[in-house]
Amino acid sequence: MTFWKGQRKSFWGKLLGVTGALALLLSSSVIEATAYANTQPVPSVVRYTGEPSKAVSMVYTTKPELALTFNGLGDEKKLTQLLNDLDTYNIKATFFLPGAQVAKQPQLAKQILARGHEIENNAVHGHDLAKLSYEQIYQQIKESKELILKHTGVTPKYARTWLGTYTDDIRLAAAHNGQEAVIGYSLFLHNWHDETDEQKNKYVRKYMNRGGIIALDIDENIHLSVSIPLIAKAATEAGYQFVPLQTLLAHGQGKLPLEKIEGYDAAKINPDYSNASAKVVKRVETDEKKVAITIDDWGSDATVTNILNILEKYQVKSTFFLRADGTAKNPNLARAILEAGHEVANHTYSHPNNTHITPEQLQQEIVQAHQVITEAIQQKPTMYFRPPAGAVNDEVVKVIAATGYETIALFDVIPSDHDKSKSADDIVNAVLEKTKNGSIVLLHMLDDIQTVEALPRIIEGLQAKGYSLVTMTDLVEKSEQGK
Fold first, then answer.
1. Contact between residue 285 and residue 438 where contact means Cβ atoms under 8 Å apart
2. For residue 273, which of 306, 370, 378, 402 is within the disulfide window of CB 3.0 to 4.6 Å?
């Protein structure tokens, strides 16, 4: 090892023509990866021609589960404290270990297993494999897998690179070594800086997604004792459970590519909109005491799950108009809304004011949102479109209709629950005072507003007045059929 370090210093000295002091300013990980690539003999390897390993950063599932993963071993004191913290919060985690560290400290790896956690493959030295040749990548994964097996008796099923990234060569070399998947992450949690406790809580909550894979580096992260309680709290508040990575992957669902889903092209760009027309629905004229509670925009998994739980408790079905840039980041949540029996509809991709953008931009917003939502829920969404803030004019209506969305869903009951200054009482009172037969109530699923607190009282209050709470389809189409 001493000789290898000497070779590294000589290599950088010749390449850069600078002193050893300057070399110390460079990232040691980059130096080691480059030196490894240029000094280590690599056996001849015939390139694998089979299917590459899966690349997984989030598991497609609606189960309230996610995985907590770690890179590296750290020292005995740090690892023991981490394992104790995981025991305190009843979390079973997955540790990606470099084979070289396992060979050097096998007792620590065995301690991880003894506490009921999983061990997987982080390559021999934890280098950035993307900088290496295919042969070197193959050898890194192979040697690490063999070292882990030799010293722990465990054969890793998954590989992760030092940075959690993956290339085609990495996926191919992983498959060549019998690794079922190359694992990324939905959140890599680094050290905290000057964040307040509230800011930390909000940040972690934002990424507490079902099917998510959270990663921390044991050597790099000096705030593990702070982060583990934060993560455990966020999961508990969302009603989620941490499970080992193998369990999470086993619970994952198959996912069709967009082009294989019927109705993916039901919305299209269509510049010829001059003669297009759409039905604009603000309220349905009906003698029946039927009301639609509709829920707009996007929120954290915890907030939306709370809304879903409330609706389930009262056996109410709603129509959710999704902001698709949020859906793209957490498709599992969109699918969970659908599986709970609710309608999923289109609320644009990035939530612009439709009267302030060009017809081309508006159609792009609608079509992109349609495709993102379709892929997330694995079926065509309900073909209703809700413009942000209800902003439409005659031209906008035509532009929307020309894409294939021929029903524009507005609203007549607006409690302005998106306004953080509104209390739950304000929201409840506004809804109960303004609702009438055929009303469409506009609520939001945003974080840090009072809708979750207000929703049970809204439902109970409307039902006490004799209203049936239905989806947009039930309100609009079935009312028309009854005429």
1. yes
2. 402
- Interatomic CA distance for residues 105 and 164, integer angstroms: 23
**181 phi/psi in degrees, rounded to 5:** -155, 155
- Which string of b and e fits 108-147 if b means at least 16 CB within 10 Å? bbbbbeebebbbbbbbbbbbbbeebebbbbbbbbbbbbbb
* Residue closest to 382 by CA, chosen among 291, 272, 253, 292: 292
- Rounded CA gap, 388 and 446, in Å? 14
pTM more than 0.90: no
pLDDT at 54: 95
- Residue 198 CA to residue 200 CA, distance in Å, equals 5
| Catalytic-labelled residue, pool 296, 297, 301, 417 | 296
Is 296 tagged catalytic? yes
DSSP 350: S
Strands in 401-476 per DSSP E: 407-409, 440-444, 468-470
Low-confidence residues in the chain, pLDDT < 50: 1-39
Is-catalytic flag, 418?
Answer: no
Distance, CA of 293 to CA of 389 (rounded, Å): 16
The answer to whether 454 and 427 have CB atoms below 8 angstroms apart is yes
- Residue 320 bridge partners (DSSP): 295, 344
User: Does residue 36 contact residue 136 with C-beta atoms inside 8 Å?
Assistant: yes
pLDDT score, position 36: 44
Residue 320: per-residue pLDDT: 98
What pLDDT was estimated at residue 390?
Answer: 95
Residue 401 CA, distance from chain mean position: 31
Q: pLDDT value at position 43?
A: 65
Is 80 within 8 Å of 111 (Cβ atoms)? Answer: yes
- Residue 32: the pLDDT is 41
What integer pLDDT is reported at residue 44 of this predicted model? 82
Q: Measured between alpha carbons, how far is 435 from 156 in angstroms, rounded to an integer? A: 59
Please enumerate, as own/partner, the contacts of 222-227 that have beta carbons within 8 Å and a separation of 24 or more: 222/191, 223/191, 223/192, 224/78, 224/81, 224/82, 224/85, 225/81, 225/85, 226/192, 226/200, 227/189, 227/192
Residues 158, 121 contacting (CB under 8 angstroms)? yes
Give residue-wise pLDDT tens across range 271-321: 999 999 999 999 999 999 999 999 999 999 999 999 999 999 999 999 999
CA distance 259 to 261: 6
Task: Output the pLDDT for position 28.
Answer: 40
What is the DSSP code string of 140-178? HHHHHHHHHHHHHS----EE--TTS---HHHHHHHHHTT
Element containing residue 366 per DSSP (H, E): helix 359-377
In 3D space, the residue among 118, 177, 115, 167 whose CA is nearest the CA of residue 144 turns out to be: 177
